[in-house]
Amino acid sequence: MPKLFSIRTARRAPPLLLGLAALSLAAAPAGAQESAGLPAAIPDAADAFRKNVTLLGIPPATVAPDGLVFAAASWTDRRDGLHPQDDASVAAGFGMGLGEGLVDLQFTANITSLEDDFGDSGYLSVKASHRLAGAAVPTFVALGTDFLGAWGDAEDRDPGVTASLTMFPVLRLGAQAFPLMLTLGGGDAVSDFGEEEGLFAGIGIGLSESFGTSLAYNGDNFDFGGSLRLPGLRNWGLTAMMRDVFDEDDRQRVVVSVNWIAADVF
């Protein structure tokens, strides 16, 4: 559920920022997504990036830092936005760095439904991310693939590929500074609910050290959500999202996720 950036950069980040960065790494089947925080990558912007910047509903160009393990459980009141019954999903994974200036990798196992026996339906995901050197603001590009080795109900989906770009500018309003997360991307299974090529885009903002919110276009409709860091529980977080928030496709549903991370596991 949880969200991130370059492995080397993440290792230099203070623990608070590392937790911020990871707590939205997602249980993708239920609709939560990664988000990211940044360490002091820009002069005088460190305070801004202590805020809980988040982006839900689309895949950003950031990955979990090297050695970080994450897990998430999500619940939705309408499975796939179509079926009236509620359902849940689970995701777990880890980040691995290949060296400074190279790419960082994220591996995720997704359990897509808990309606029947646990683990009887799911797939694997892999994403590679690279930070662009010399960019005016922290900028990342990524290439990812989903539905690898799919089983159970997910078996009908072919593997899909997405490419994305994510930037982290800072919005200054008077004496206040707010971190932004901007993502633009596309893939071969994005629009028509994962059946056709399409584009996605979104913007997120960190409003405080505890709370951030975002709006994203997922290729078919818009998702609106927020992320909450729990005071005193830096390894835990909550996200809530309204998918198809404007009910354009009659698929409006709520997704609530609980996220956990552990840094420097290996």
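Second entry:
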Amino acid sequence: MKEQLDFDDDEDKRVSNITKIRKVILYWLLGIIYTAFIGLQLGRIQSIADYNYTLHEMFYIPANLAIYFVPILFLIYIYLVIISSRRHPREKLSSITKLKTGLVVTSIIAISLTVVYQFNESLLSGIFEIKEKSQDGSSYYLVIEDKKILVSKNEYNLIKVNTNYLITYLWNSFSPDTGKLLSIEPDSPQYFSNEDNVPSVD
């Protein structure tokens, strides 16, 4: 009887240790996932790259590490969950543990989809002639090479049709017919040529 009690105590300690390890891995997973995602978003900010390119590159380090560590830690976590359920089949996961597990799985899926979408984005710069402008409700667009480029209302009002501009816009291969304007400048400086503004020389 005493040996049975000792065995049960040892088994409870093993399960308790597994639970603690599982919680630590879960926290590490959440930390790595969100740190990597935040780093990717900061790395997309062009002003940071212009200010310090080394700092810009450092923001991608957590994402590169996450590619290797997240799958490994997640598999270990699932393994520990299976071990715990087998040793204590009647023991149910707490609501908090289920919530955290769901948060990890949802975060992995949501962030993975977001990153895949962002990796298919492309910047395009060049001199384009604005052939057409269009408005759809409260949204304003320029039509550039069969793409509808989203612009602000102020930009829409200032831009002239049949005029060349130096344009940079962002588009995605998942939605190749649309894009977003990042910058626009006149193709060449505009100068006044009114002779009345030039002093006459007698």
